[in-house]
Amino acid sequence: MMEMLKLLRLPRLIFKNSSKSVSYYITTPIFYVNSAPHIGHLHTVLLADALNVYQRLKLGTDETVFSTGTDEHGIKIQAAAHANGMSYREFCDINSEKFKALFKSYDTTITDFVRTSEERHSNAVRSIWQELNNRGFIYKCNYSGWYNVTDELFVSESLVTQKEIDGVTHHVDQNDNKLVWSSEENYMFKMDLVREEVLKWLLDSNPITPDKFREEVVKMIKDTRDISISRPRDRLEWGISVPNDPSQTVYVWLDALTNYLTVVGYPRPQDELLRWPVDCQVLGKDIIRFHAIYWPAFLVALSLPLPKKLVCHSHWLVDSLKMSKSRGNVVDPWEETRQLTTEGLRYYLIRCSTTHSDNEYSRTQALRRINSELADTYGNLLNRCCAPAINPRQVITKTFLTNALTPEIIHLVDQLRALASLCESHYEQADFYKGVDLIMSTLRYNNKLYEDYKPWKLVKEIDSNEESLRIYHNLQAITFETLRICSILLQPVIPKLSEQALSWLRCSNTRWQDAQVCPSLYESNQTETKLLKDTKSILFRRLNSV
Ligand code: MSP
Question: How far is the CA of 285 from the centre of ligand 1 (A)?
Answer without folding.
Answer: 9
